[in-house]
Amino acid sequence: MGLTGLEIFKHLPKTNCKECGFPTCLAFAMALASGKTSLDLCPHVTEEGKAALESASAPPIKLVKVGTGDHLLELGDETELFRHDKRFFHPTGVAVLISDTGDAAAEAAAFDELEFDRVGLHYVTDVVAVKCDSGDGAKYRAAVEAVAGKTKKAMILLCEDPDLLEGAVEAVADRKPLLYAATADNYEKMVELAKAKGCPLAVRGEDLEKTAELVKKIVALGCKELVLDSGARDTSKVLADLTQMRRGAIKKFRPFGYPTIAFTSKEDPLEEIVQAGVYVSKYASIVVLKTAKREHLLPLLSWRQNLYTDPQKPIAVEPGLYEVGEVTADSPVYCTTNFSLTYFIVEGEVENSRIPSYILSVDTGGISVLTAYADNKFSGEIIAKAMKEVGLEEKVNHKSIVLPGHVAVLQGTLEEESGGWKVLVGPREAAGIPKFAKEKFV
Amino acid sequence: MIIIGERINGMFQDIARAIRERDGSIIQEWARKQEQNGARYLDINVGPGSTEPVEAMKWLVEETQKASELPLCLDSTNYDAIEAGLKICKRPAMINSVPAEAAKMERVFTMAAQYGSEVICLAMSEEGIPKDSESRVALAMELVATGDALGVPIENLYIDPLVLPCNVAQDHGPEVLETLRQVKLISDPPPKTVVGLSNASQGTRDRELVNRVFAVMAMANGLDAAIADANDDELMAAVATARILLNIDIYCDSYVDVFKQA
Amino acid sequence: MALEIQKERYRSKVGEVVLGATKEQGGTRSHTVTVGGESALPFLHFEGEMPHRPVIALEISDMAPGWHPCFDEYYADVFENTAAWAKKCVDEYGADLVQIRLQSADPDLKDRSPEECAATVKEVLEAVGVPLIVVGCGKAEKDNLLYPAVAEAAAGENLLLGVAEVENYKAITSACMAHQHNVIALSPIDINICKQLNILIAEMSMVMNSRIIIDPCMSALGYGIEYTYSIMERARLGALQGDRMLSMPMIGNVGYEVWRTKEANTPVEENPGWGERAERAVLWEATTAMAFLQAGLDILVMRHPHAAALTRQNIDELMQDNSY
């Protein structure tokens, strides 16, 4: 919501002087709230009032950038509590922890490869967090440099002693690492360091309230690229704090108007991933993990991707000819649309049929069979064209194709448009595919 | 949108007689009928020309509460009668109403804060009902600011932009709709809005048609509640449909029935 | 501005459903399991009540199901013995409930009769003390014969019987009405149909209003999970905001959906980029479960005991009070 009439009215002189052209300050405030006039028209509003009104109209959560170039990580700038109200915008950054007491270079090189491909999508583990466990500034700096040499991705520097941190920051300042963290004990120096090097700064208080207080102090010192840690580490408490911070931000409680960072507390890596999943679900802008194993990261990255998809836009698979199992020139061919959900359900059922088959995924702009049919995006002509594009004639020697049962009406036109292919009308629901295949293809 | 059932009003002959003869069965029947068809509050009005409004109001409250658990809307310009009613209401009630006049706001909002009541606030002053939406909204602002200052939560305030009959005051229609929209910009959380639906069709032909079209138009402009005929099935169906179209209720094929039973 | 803890106040709450019946109540369960009753969004104890924690049902079949070999270490000795399998799920793997899928009734599999299936259900009832969930083979015509037989054989046990769908709900609902069981109302990832189905069931008998468990139709992680997730969040919010036809607890076949995916089955040799299969698969199931817990799932039907253990622990942690 923009500014309300009452909010604006509080900052007006309340003299009803009429110099703005409105009969009362109340009327001016309401006109301003509905965007019908401009604050400039009031010659008597104070600087403080102007600042308050400006701050109130800024977006709920600041956009904070960590890293640079192709690997720039954008955090925050969210407006929703639920993805179905609009969407979530900036996927949670997933960070892997490297200690400066280990082989930082080797671990960083391994980290840099933590990218995954599945179902035509590419997932990236986006952040590396380097922790000062050694207590030695030179050693920490060397580790940070080693990591920076092996990966171009965004970095977090975990070190709460500004003196130990300073050297490391200097080495990689141009990479705009997130400095973790300013606390009640060190914030003045940390703020100085962050400002001097132009780096975003994480803030951690002992609890939610103390974090808010600390943020106020830090903002007053002119540091505004912040990422917040409420200090909680128990799953249930972190969930509550992240929820409070998101709600507070949306209600324009300014100290919470920043992205958040959450740390896992579990030792067992599987427990850690489940815990991290909760934080990804509920408003963490970065989650920091200890495990760096592929089998652990893949599920978490998949959940992140799923949660952050735009509910308004259906996801599509790459249209084309897909092979399910060890196909031969005799294998059956099914056709369907390229709406992800449809495609994968069909693929799953074809797998269940245990008969290796081809699936022709026709480009319908990512919408489902019935919707596409109604919209004239899944027609005999379009399917025939797709068949030609993938050179289906060369792939199989039987010239027959299975049509989804819901669009049985297209059978005639498809046979015609395809130049005489035999069109079998398949089941209406994909779940009928195994039985259908058993009857027709065994 | 919440329907406040309007039928228990002394201006209807059967109610007036019931009050005169202290025949509770009629009151109870109307309470039940309105509730069954989807009313969520019951408006109680002793009617014009009542000789003992305080006693009549108390009696109406007692009888209505025998037949329904719904919250009541105490409709009177006699604030002693309203207070007497509030004292015996089993659950927090709605006060209908107060205009933007200083002394009346003081009395009513203080009472509302004391009894935890919601309040219908009329966008009018000693000078009457303004025409343009800016003036109506300015009066609404005053009501909100005063209510807030006297301890009434803003979500408990229902601004009534004052609907006038569309045959004689047609030019007020668009202003009322604009007012409903603008009122939501007054504060965060914003006050609620309400209209006396039947006023739109006072003296017109086919009153039900006018009422239900106006209801839907007002809902599209954010209307939260309406004092209306809860037993007008076509009105209730239109309101249920508007709630689906405005994405307030989740659709299902039986949505009209669900709305009535909710 | 001082910090104000933001607490939502809802008009209403989720209904409660009791599963199982003890001797005093006419059954033979050692205890009942109640689900639902939430008056706030999942695990937000600071603003409402979660009187009943989400529960985990382990899924079994009434015939050897041909699951991935990784299940052999847990169930190889009991795949052919339904009652023993159920007992193992409870005694060794801590299942709160057991869900039996009457797969063998499928005309394309063993085509076992309703009487034979009912007898199996009775065997399982004798083997375990936890409440039971019984679902058909997925072929409507056959299932409509199973429901009355099973419902009658288990009369008094207050089963959760599945599934009712908009196209086919009368047979199962009648069976539940006649013998006092609860019903799973399944809708195809469609909140409007979900709501309408609940209305249709309740129209058959008002009593069914507190005997419905919603199945919004699970999808696995990576395969449209977010569609179901958002429907569940919308339904749960609707329930809290007073929509009585969405105020039922929810159930999901997490195990069934996850174990159909490539990610649960593909060995690392076939796709090295995905890491080792064993932990990947367990996490695929546990992450799916975790996500749905955040959306309000009350009954999780799972397969892998390790995934179930991880989920149980997640629930333990999330059920800890987080009041301010």
As residue ranges, the low-confidence spans of chain B are none
Helix content, binned percent of chain C = 25-40%
Compute the number of strand runs of chain C: 10
Structural class of chain B: alpha/beta
- Determine the oligomeric state from the structure: heterotrimer
Return the average pLDDT of chain B rounded to an integer: 94
Ordered list of secondary-structure elements with their pairings:
The complex is a heterotrimer of chains A (442), B (262) and C (324).
Chain A: H1 5-10, H2 25-33, H3 47-56, E1 63-66, E2 73-76, E3 93-99, H4 104-112, E4 115-118, E5 121-124, E6 127-131, H5 137-150, E7 154-158, H6 162-172, E8 178-182, H7 187-197, E9 201-204, H8 208-220, E10 226-229, H9 235-250, E11 261-263, H10 269-281, E12 286-289, H11 294-307, E13 320-324, E14 333-337, H12 340-353, E15 357-362, H13 369-374, H14 380-389, H15 392-395, E16 400-403, H16 411-417, E17 422-425, H17 433-441
Parallel strand pairs in A: 3-6, 3-12, 6-7, 7-8, 8-9, 9-10, 11-12, 14-15, 16-17
Antiparallel strand pairs in A: 1-2, 4-5, 13-15
Helix pairs in contact in A: 4-5, 5-6, 6-7, 10-11, 12-17, 14-16
Chain B: E1 2-5, H1 13-21, H2 24-36, E2 41-44, H3 53-67, E3 72-75, H4 79-88, E4 94-99, H5 102-115, E5 118-122, H6 133-149, E6 157-160, H7 172-183, E7 192-196, H8 207-220, E8 225-228, H9 233-245, H10 255-261
Chain C: E1 16-19, E2 33-36, E3 55-61, H1 72-75, H2 82-91, E4 97-101, H3 114-127, E5 132-135, H4 140-153, E6 160-164, H5 170-179, E7 182-186, H6 191-204, E8 212-215, H7 225-240, E9 251-252, H8 254-258, H9 262-265, H10 277-295, E10 299-302, H11 305-318
Parallel strand pairs in C: 3-4, 3-10, 4-5, 5-6, 6-7, 7-8, 9-10
Antiparallel strand pairs in C: 1-2
Helix pairs in contact in C: 2-3, 3-4, 4-5, 7-10, 10-11
